[in-house]
Amino acid sequence: MPQSKSVLPVYDFSLSLNDAYREKILPLFTQHRIAANPINYALLYDYVADQNPELKKAIDALLAEKKTLEMKESQELYASFVCSASLESFETIQEKIHQVLNRASDAVDRTFSQAEQAGDGFEQKTTLLENTSDVANHQAIILDIIRETRALAATTQAMQAELTRANAEMEELRGELISVRKVATTDGLTGLLNRHAFQDVMDDIIDHEGGGAVTLAILDIDFFKQVNDTWGHPMGDSVIKYVASLVKKHVADHHHVARYGGEELVIVMPDTDKRTAWDISENIRCEMEKVRLKRKSDDQSLGEITVSIGLTEKRDDDSVDSFISRADSALYRAKQLGRNRIEEG
Questions:
Q1: Where do the domains of the chain lie?
Q2: pLDDT tens, 76-129?
Q3: How many Cβ atoms sit within 10 Å of the Cβ of residue 284?
Q4: Known catalytic residues?
């Protein structure tokens, strides 16, 4: 699996291990009628390497449901688990920043060089003025000083214009960079944080000890496979989007909501104890239980759609894995005990 958090994944497996993985990967393309493209190969590489359990879980779920990997799902999985952003976008912005800084630097260098030359010239002309009493020579020297001063002023104005332009371009590039970063951390379907962004949030929480209580909730749409089988995948996507918007409506501004994979969402709630998190989760569950979504084309109701939630509060000795695992176990109990409920871990 990737060993780096950089834009591009980095692999460090040996040649013999790569050969072994290839022998496992190639039959999967035929067995599941998966398109043999670089994105799917990268996904299946991580899949057979078994170094990314969440990716493996997501692929297993898709293969069980659809028997194959369609391009849309492949792209979402690749963006979430393998490569977090477009390298080309970052490289383009980096090159633009380099060009802007070079132009500004050249303008400053030209101005300093001319100012240095002008300073030397002024010093020489001052000496000439002091050593000559001829009025005509005085006038000629003064005219030279005026011309050089005007030239220096023009160069200084040009530098100021270039710096102003550079500042405007840097602001524009800063906006582009923010947009690229947003794309790199946003789930394409729901607009929530994606898996990589969620991992970064969790890493920060575990790395920064102390502070207030932190509660994690994992939410799963009950019987979601039936929704897809009955109404089709586009309608299933609409259901996921609706649940995502409902969750966002109930959480606080400082909470983080991410799409965890498929029909699962996660809510990271800093400065929120388990009791408060339970109330938030219960509000989400109750509202979803009452909603009756309808298909726009014929106004037909999709029936009752509910969610199950597992939540847990961070412990002092938690790692990211233990924190998530406890919430996941609570979610599993909620589903085992009948779904449409909340369980604590």
A1: 15-82, 87-185, 195-344
A2: 888 777 765 555 566 676 777 777 777 777 777 777 777 777 777 777 777 777
A3: 23
A4: 263
